[in-house]
Amino acid sequence: MVWPCPLPVDAYARAGPEVAFPRLDCPSCAGPLVFWSGYRRHVRAAGRCVRIFIPRVRCGPCRVSHALLPAFTLAWRLDAAEVIGTVVAEVASGRCGVRPAAARAGVPYTTARGWVRRFAARAPQIGAGFAALAVELGGEPFPPPAGAARFALAAIGAAFAMAAALPGWAGLGSWRFASSVSGGKLIAANTTSPFLVVGRRRFMPPVPPLPA
Ligand SMILES: [Zn+2]
Question: What spacing in Å lies between the alpha carbon of 29 and ligand 1's midpoint?
């Protein structure tokens, strides 16, 4: 599960388990999820790796636990969502090739190429899902641009534009938004089920950032 964390990566890393994590309901039974345990993982942003704390929450009746990822991460990806999203957007929009985009982001060429390929492969689903979310949030349907990857980018932009009018979302940016509503699986390889979380229960408002 991904929550719409508004904190900068460094601030989140520094706070460790003291981050004000949101209280969520179980996706299966809607009962309360309670803090269970946690683990550390790395995230790479602005050219360096930091260790972050990921809490696990658990539903007692369902006996299922979930990792609670902050929205600046994507599941199973080292790099921050904004880094991946920026590279994907530059390439998918035709502004530049993978190599210059990877160089600007400070990531290996093959890594960036993997993101772009995954995004292209999932673009029809991403486009349809986010276009539907944009309409659900009150946006006008728009004519899809030519090309699945451009459509996917436009749909993410349209959905984020609508979400940004809701409390708390504007400051997150479109890639944290995209990670939040896709459960971190925006460019996941093995997602076969419809991935987009549009239900109100999990389209949660961002929590306020930590007091300084
Ligand atoms: Zn449950």
Answer: 4
